[in-house]
Every structure is written in structure tokens, then in C-alpha cells.
Amino acid sequence: MYVTFLECSRCGARHERGKLHNLCRECGSPLLVRYDLERAGDTLTRESLCGRVASLWRYREVLPVTDDAAVTTLGEGWTPLVHARRLGERLDMSRLYLKDESMNPTGSFKARGMTAAVSMARELGAERLAVPSAGNASGALAAYAAKAGLEAHIYMPRDAPPVSIVECRQYGADVVLVDGFINDCGRIIGEKKEREGWFDVSTLKEPYRVEGKKTMGYELAEQMDWTLPDVLLYPTGGGTGLIGMWKAFDEMEELGWIDSRRPRMISVQAEGCAPIVAAFEAGADAAEAVARPATVAAGLRVPVAIGDFMILRIVRASGGCALSVSDAEILEDVREIGATEGIFVAPESAACLAALRRLLGSGSVGRDERVVLMITGSGLKYPHLWSEPS
Ligand SMILES: *Cc1c(COP(=O)(O)O)cnc(C)c1O
Ligand SMILES: [Zn+2]
């Protein structure tokens, strides 16, 4: 509501608010939304949140939409922060928490990004939206576009989870299957968008999805009584949620809600597609593209992330790390979380538990620390990963 301008995450160039933008016009990097937090803080106080709507729109002042009529919501956000007592016991941890994003509309935290992106597209007059997606982003865009009465054009790799393909079609979207990876889908959209009049809502090529996802950071602080966890594990594809939460922490500090302490941010990837991990280990500032990404965790099958430099900067600044886990560990830990906590999680999310085991084993995470695993989506979208019931 109190947007002042959009700022390039790399070169700092300012871009005018109230206009459709993709990447920085100077250097082609992602844009981040800046707010007049002093004004926002007049009405948005920690106390004011009590009794507000139980969705991410409770943080209305630090979300980009100006016109209430443009807000397109299906009730996303304000998801439970679950104290994982039984899972914690098995790991000899007493303060393990799951942020259960599987409760979102369309079954993943992609809903957070898309409620913001579609609302802004509506406010700024875009009518045809296009996205490349390996799974959950497509369902979320299709649902919010349907709600808003906008067109959704979705390009998915042919090996995307079959449920996601069905789901998009039932939301009335135009779905095209591509023989390639998510970056190939992105390239096709890039080639066609001008001719077709599409607005590209690819993650971080569009400035508002990150704003929707940052609300996970606000919620964590609110649910932890205005403190942050010691360690936060995030399954990283494009990194939007990690970048968003870090931004939220800075905004909350500026609002005077939290101090300067931050969680150690752990970027988790799958062994078959771990560009951020490779760059982290090499001490590099940017990641190199993975040639043949392969993992059951479709949301982590992202060979190039345009926000790679921000992810790496955040992980290092927080004192965290990046690490990868195998598909076998991921599948085992889907069952472990299901059987201890009653949540059927997406494979991407189970990767966080596998990574936590490693970090506990090496001593980089203490068993008495406050640890949050981001449960980014529901396992119900991935029935193809399990063979017939036996
Ligand atoms: C998309 C997705 C991710 C990765 O999110 P990014 O913001 O791209 O890093 C993780 N888990 C699930 C379930 C996803 O759908
Ligand atoms: Zn720039």
C-alpha cells in the first residue's frame, strides 16, 4: 500500500511504482519493492494485527496493492507453525517446528506469490498472464487468474507432475507441455510474449511474487512472539521464499518489531540439481547452470536461478550454508514426517528434514536450537512418485 519505488537488486536503479515491470531496465536483474515503512507503521503495529484477517493480507500495509478491489484472494497464508514434538523426539530435539504451507489454496506456498502477482497484474491492467512452471506455480497462477477473470498461459515440462497438469486445465488455463526443462519453458514465453501480449509472471522476473512470499517471514515472527528461529531450512528452486523472508526480516527491523538477530538460513537442494550448493562450496557469487537436472522434487528442478547472487549473499550473511540431499533420503523423509506429524509433505519439503539430519550429524546445528523446516507444499500433488498401494 505504501510502495515508494522498485529498486534493482543488483545496480540499485530505481523504477517507478504503478507500472508493469519485469527486470531492471539497466542491468536485467530482479527488482525489489520498497515501501515508506514509517507511514506503514502508523497503522501497522504488532498490536494492530490482533483480530485482523487470517490470511497474508493481514499485512496489507506492506503489500504492494493500492486498490482493495484488485485484491484477489483464496484465503492464502497465515498457515500453522506446528511444534513437531514426535518428529523432534526422534531427533532428540525439543524445539523443532514445521511451517505448514501445504494448507494453502492449491496445496503449496506458490499461492502466496500468486495472490500478490495476480492482484498487481489486475491493478496495473495486465490481462494475459504467462508462466513457466515445473508444477506448483502453474496451479497457483491458474487458480488466481481464474478468480480474477484473467487469462493464464502455462508452459510446463512434459515430465511435470501429472496432477498439476490436470489441475491447471480444470482452472481453465491454457497449458502447453514442453520437451525440456523449466528454463526452456521460460525461454519460449520470452520469445512469444510480445506478440501475444502476455505479461510474464516468472518468479523474480516479476517483482510481486516475492512480496507475497515474504509474508512467511512476517508470520514466523508473529507466531514466535516477535523472535526468529535460530535456524531456518528452505528448499531452494528459484529462491523466492528465502529472498522474501530475508526482506521481511529487514522490513520488520525497520518497523522496530524485531532486533538485528537473524536465523542461519540453510538453502537445501537435491543432489540431481544443486547449482546454489556448488556455488556456495566454490565460494562463488553466482551459480553455474546445471545441464541435466534430475530429482523427484519438481520444484527444485531449477537449473538456473536469476536470483542466485541474492540467495548466496543471504546464506553467507546469515552464517548459514547450502547443502544437497539425495532423492532416496527425500522419499524416506516424506514418510517420516507423515508418520510422526500427520502431514503428507511435498518431496521438496522433506528435503529439509534430510538436510537437518546432516547438520545435526556434523554438529552445525545443535539439538537444543530452535529450528524451523519450511513445509512448502503438500504431497498430495505427487502421487506419481509412489507405485500402487501394496
Ligand atoms: C516452487 C517450490 C519450491 C521452491 O521454491 P522457490 O521459491 O522457487 O525456491 C519448494 N517447494 C515446493 C513445494 C515448491 O512448489
Ligand atoms: Zn539493475
Attribute tags:
390 residues, alpha/beta, Rossmann fold, 4-stranded parallel β-sheet, 12 helices, binds pyridoxal-5'-phosphate, binds zinc ion
Short description:
This protein has 390 residues and is of the alpha/beta class.
Note down, in words, how this protein is organized.
The protein is an alpha/beta fold and 390 residues long. The protein has a single domain, classed as 3-Layer(aba) Sandwich (Rossmann fold), CATH 3.40.50.1100. Helices cover 37% and strands 16% of the residues. The protein has twelve helices and 13 strands. It has helices spanning 37-43, 85-90, 110-124, 136-148, 162-170, 182-196, 209-223, 240-254, 275-282, 308-317, 327-341, 347-362; strands at residues 3-8, 14-15, 31-35, 81-83, 96-100, 128-132, 151-157, 174-178, 199-200, 231-235, 264-270, 321-325, 371-375. The strands form three sheets. Strands 4-5-13-10-11-12 form a six-stranded mixed β-sheet, with helices on both faces. It has a four-stranded parallel β-sheet with strand order 8-7-6-9, sandwiched between helices. A three-stranded antiparallel β-sheet has the order 2-1-3, with no helix packed on it. Helix 7 (209-223) packs across helix 8 (240-254). The longest helix has 16 residues, at 347-362. The chain is globular, with a radius of gyration of 19 Å. It starts with a strand and ends in a 15-residue tail after the last strand. The site of zinc ion (ZN) has 8 residues, from loops.
